[in-house]
C-alpha cells in the first residue's frame, strides 16, 4: 500500500508535464501580447533568480550551523542534507509554477478571445501544473528519503545513525522533519519577499494610477503596471506554491512522526499483534496513501471542470466547487477501504478523523467565502459604511476581519477535540494527536486541485492585464475579469485551508518536538534516565505527561508564560515588519511613478512609453532588502527563547504564536478580502458605482487590505510552522542547556 | 501597620472633598459658558442614570444566580453581597468623578482666561477628586470588608462560613475576590458603554463637521458637539474611573489571596517563627500599606504640580512627570522600612519586587510615549505616509501599533521572571506569584496621582469646547488646547499602566483561581483527598504542581489548547463587537447631523441653533443597546468553557485572552494615539499643515483610531480581568462537573 505514494507522485508529475506541454503548444496571440508576456516573464525570472541567490546564502549559513551541531553531537549528521533537499524542491516548485504561469497569461487571453470556457481551461490547466508539481514533488521527496533512510543509510552509516536496531522509525521520522524546516525556510522567504514585491507594485500602481491620474487598472500608460503583473506571479504563484508545498509536506511528516511515537509508547494497545516496526510502518503509510489518493482524485477533478459560455459568477464558482466537492467525497469514500487494508487497529477511528478534516476544511472555506464574498452581508456592510466615509469603511472592515476568525476557530476546536478523542487520545495522548494530524492531512489531501484553482487566479489576472495593455477587444477583458473575480474567492478559500491545516499540524508538531527531545536525550547526549518527582524514569519510556512534568510545562510556570507572551509579541511584530516593508517599498514606487508622469508628460497622453523596467527594479530591490529581517527573526526567536527559558519556554512560545498567529492571519486575510470585494460590489453599481465617493472610500480600504491579505496574513501561516520546525531542528542545542531546562533552570532552581 | 490602609483611604476621601469644594467655589464664567456646561452636565447625568439602570438589571440577575449557587452549596453565601458592594462603589466613583468633571470644565475655561497655571490647577485638582475617590473608596472597601469578615461574620455565621478555625484567611481572601468581580462587571459596562458613546459622538461630529462641512472642532453650529463633550465625560472620566478602580482593587485583592495561600503551603519557609495566621496577616498587610503609602505620596504630588506662564508642551509634560517621578521615588524609598517593619521574612526580596513594578510601569509608560508622541519617529513616519495617501498612513499606523507591544511585552516578561524568582518562586511557586502581584500593586500605587493627570485630560478638553462654543478670546482656547494636548500623552501613559498591571495581576489571578478551586473542593463539596497518578493527596496540601497534574493543565492537553484558541478568539471577537458598535452608532449620528444641516440650512450660517439634545439621545440609546452583547459574552464564555473543558480549559482560556488581549489592546491604543498625534503634527505645520491632502489623510487615520484607542483597546483590559474574576466566582459551578474535569473529562476519559 505504501508504494501508492511514489506511484501517485510520479503520475502527478507526469500529468503536470502533459498540461505544461499542451499549454505551450497554444498560441500566445499577436506581437504586442507576446511582447508584454515576455516583459512580465523576464521581470519575474529576474526577481526569482535574485531571491534564490539571497536564500542560497541563508541556506549555506544554516547548513554550516547544522554541520557544526552534528559535529558536536547536537544533531544527526544527515539533518543538514535533508534540510537542503527540502529547500531545493520547494524552490523548484515555485520556479516551475511561475514559469508556467508567465507562459500561460497571454495564451489565456488569446483563448478567452475565443470563448469563456477556452480561457477557463487554459488558465486552470496551467494552474494545475503548479498544483500537481507541488503535491508530486512533496510526496516523491518524502517517499524517496524514506526509502534511502530505511534501506541504504543503515548500511553506510550504521553507528552514527541508527542505534535503535529493532525499530529505526523514530530516528527516520525525526530526520525527515528537518526536511520540513528546509521547505519552511524557503517558503517564508518566498512568501515574505513575494508578498512585499507584489503589494509594493500593486499599491504603488493603484495610488498614482487609479487614484491620482484616474487611469484604469493595467493601463499601459502606468509605469508600474508590468511590475504589478510580475508581482502577481512572484507573490501569488511562486510564494503560494512554496507555502503550500511546506504545509503539505509538513503535515505528512509530522503525522508520520507521531504515528511512530504513538505505537512506541502504547504498550500493546495499537499493535494488534504486529511488531512495533510493522505497526509503525502501517501508521506511516496512512498519511502517505491518503495523500496519494488525493492526488489521483485531484487529477480527475481537473478534468471535470468546464463551463457554459453564458456562465455568471455563481456558475463559475459552481464549476470549480463541483471539482472540490467531488474529490472530497471521493476521498471520504475511498479512504475507508484504504485505512482498513493498511491494517490499522483503530482504522474506523482514523477514517472518522479523515472525515473530520475534510469537514473542517469545508467549514473554514465556507466561512471565508461568507466573510469575503459580496454575495453576503459582511462585505455589503463594508460597502454601506464606505458610503458614509473611508474611516467608517475601515473600521467596519477591521471589525469584520476580527469577527471572521470565530467560526474557523470553533471548527478547529471541535475538529481537534473530536479527532483527538476518537483516535484514542484518552488512552494514548500521542495517538490522539496522530488523529489530529490525520485530519490535517485529509484537509490538505485535495491540494492538487485546490492549488490549481488558486494558481489559476493570478494567471487569469495577468491575462486581463495582457488583454488591457495589448488593447484587445473589450469582451476579452470582460471574460478575464469574470475568471479573475472567481479567483479572488478561490484564493481566499485556499488561504483558509492553509491556515486551518497549519493550526492542526502545529498541534502535531508540539508533540513531535518532544519526541525529538527524547531522541536527543538518548541518542546524542546519552541520558537514559531522568528523575521526575521522586521517581527515576527511563527516557525511552517517558510519556508525554512525564515530559510535561519533567520540564514543568504548565501555565503557572513563568517560563511558559514568558514564552507565551513572547510568541504573541513575535506574531504582532512580525506582521508589523512585513506591513511596514510594503509601506516603504510602495512609497518608493509611488515616487517613481509620480516622477515619470511629471518628467515625461507624454506618458499620460499615450505618446511615450513609460520606463517599466525601472519600476520592476525598484520592487525587486525593495523585496530583497525587506525580506531578510522578518525571516531571520522567525529563525532566531525560538532558539533564543529555548536557550533562556528551556523546553517549557519553547512550548509556550509555539502555543502563543500558533493561537495568536492563527487569529491574526485570518483577521488580516479576511479583512483584506472583504475590502477588496466591497470595492467590487460598489463597482457593479451599488452605492453610486465607480467614481462615486463610496468607491473612493472603498479603494482606500482595498489598498490598506492589500498588504494585510497578501503579505502579512499568509506570511504568519508560515511563521507558525517555521518556528515549530526551527525548534525541532535546534532541539539538540536547546537540550544542551541543563538538559532543556534553559539558563533559567540552570541558574535559578 | 495594617491600619495605615483605612487611615490613608479616609485621608484620600477627605482631600477629594476638599478639592471638590475648592473647585465649586470658583466662578463658572459668563451665562453662555454656564449654559453650555449645564447642557453637558445634563446629558452626562442622563446617560449615566440610564447606564446604571441597565447595569442594575444585570447585577440583579447575577446576584440571583449567586444566591442560587450559594443555596446549592456551590458558592459561599457572603459572595452575592460582596459582589454587589464592588459594583456599587465602582459606580459611585464614576458618578463622583463625572459630577466633578462636568462642574469643572467651564471653571477651567474661566480660570484659563486668567492664566495657563490657573487653568492647569483647576483642571488637575478636579481630576484629583476622581483619582483620590477611586483609591480612597477601593482601599476603604477592602479594609472594611476585611474587618467585617475577620471580626464579625465568624460570630454570626460560624458554620457556613468558617470551618478553617485556625486560619480563616483563605476563606476571607477568596470571598473578597468576588468583590473584584462586582467592580469588573461595573467597569466593563462603563468602559464599553462609555467608549461607544464617546466615539460615536466624536466620529459622527468629525465626519460631518470637520470633513464635510469644514467647520472647526467644537463649533457650536455642529449639532453633535454637545454629545461629543458629554462623551468625553462618560467615556474618559466615568469609564476610566470604573476601570482603574477595578484594576487597583483587583491587584490588591489577588495579591492578598496569594500571600495567604503561599504561607499556607510553605511549610516553615515563610513563617519566620510566626503562626500561619500571623504570617498571613503580614503578607496581606504588605499590598495594603503599599497602597496607603502611594495615596499619601499622590496627594503630596498633586500639590507639587505648577507651571510657568510661558510653558511649552515639554515644560507642561515635565511638570506632570515631576509629580509622577517624585511620588515613585518616594514609594521606592519609604516602602523599604515598611516591608521591613511588617516582619516579612523575605522583606528585601519583596522590596525588590516593588522596585521592579515601579520600573516596569515607567518603561511601559515611556514606550507608550515613544510610539504615540509626535516628538518621536514612529508618529512622524505616519505623518510622512499621510503625505503619500490615506491608505499608506493607515498601513503605517497599524504597523506602528503592532510593533509598539514589543517593549512593554519585554518589560512585563522580565518583570515577571525577576519578581517571581527574587520573591522565592523556585522554592514556593505561590510566593513567586505573590512577588509578581506585589509588582503589580507597586505599579498602580501612584494611581491617585496618575489618575488625576488622566482625568484632567477630558476636563481640559471640555474646557476648550466650552471656550470655543462660548466664543471666548482666542488665547483661552490656545491655553486649553495646550493643556489638552498634554492630556493625550498622560491618557496614553495611563492606559499603559492599566494594561501593564492587568498583565501582572492576571498571573496572580490564575493562581488565585486554583486556590478558590481548592476551597470549593474542601469547604463546599467535602472532597478531602484526590488521586493523582498513583498517589492519594490531601486537598488542603495540594501544591500548584499537584493541581496542574490533577487537572492535566499542560500544553498538550487538547482541552487546554481548545481553551487557548477560544480565549484568543474571544479577544478578537470582543474587539470586533465593540468596534462595529461604534461604527453603527457613528453612522446613526452622521445621518442625524447631515439631516439637521440639510433640513435647517440656517444652522451652518450660524442663524439657527442646532438640536443638540437629539444627538445626545442618539448616542445614549446606541451605547445602551450596543454594550449588552459584548459584556454578556465576557461573562458567559468562561462559564461555558469551564463546564465543557473543565479547569484545564478555563486556564487555557484565561492565558489565551491575557496574552492576546494584552498585545491587541496595546496595538489598538497606540495605533489610535499615534494617528491622533500624527494629525496634530501635521496641524502644527508639517507636510503642508491644516487643510492639506496630508491633513485629510491623517484625519481619516485619526477617525479610524478613535474606536480602537478609546473603545476596543481599553475594554480589552477589563475583559481580561473580568474573565478571570468570573472564573473565580463561578469556580463552584465548574467544579460540580466531574470535580472540575468538565463534561469532556466526565464522558471521554
Helix content of chain A: over 70%
- Please indicate the count of domains of chain A: 1
Alpha carbon gyration radius of chain A: 25 Å
Query: How much strand of chain A?
Result: under 5%
Strand order of the largest sheet of chain A: 1-2
Quaternary form: homodimer
Overall shape of chain A: it is: globular
- Please give the largest β-sheet of chain A: 2 strands, antiparallel
**Secondary-structure element string of chain A:** HHHHHHHHHHHHHHHHEEHHHHHH
Biggest interface, CB < 8 A: A-B, 89 and 89 residues
Helix count, DSSP H or I runs of 4 or more residues of chain A? 22
First and last CA, distance of chain A: 51 Å
Q: Please state the average pLDDT score of chain A.
A: 89
Tell how many strands the DSSP assignment of chain A holds.
Answer: 2
Unreliable runs of chain A: none
Alpha-beta content class of chain A: mainly alpha
EC number (chains A, B): 7.2.3.1
GO molecular function, one term (chains A, B): potassium ion binding
Transmembrane segments (chains A, B): 6-23, 54-72, 78-101, 122-152, 172-190, 248-271, 283-304, 324-342, 348-365, 405-423, 429-452, 496-514, 550-574, 631-655, 718-738
Organism (chains A, B): Bellilinea caldifistulae
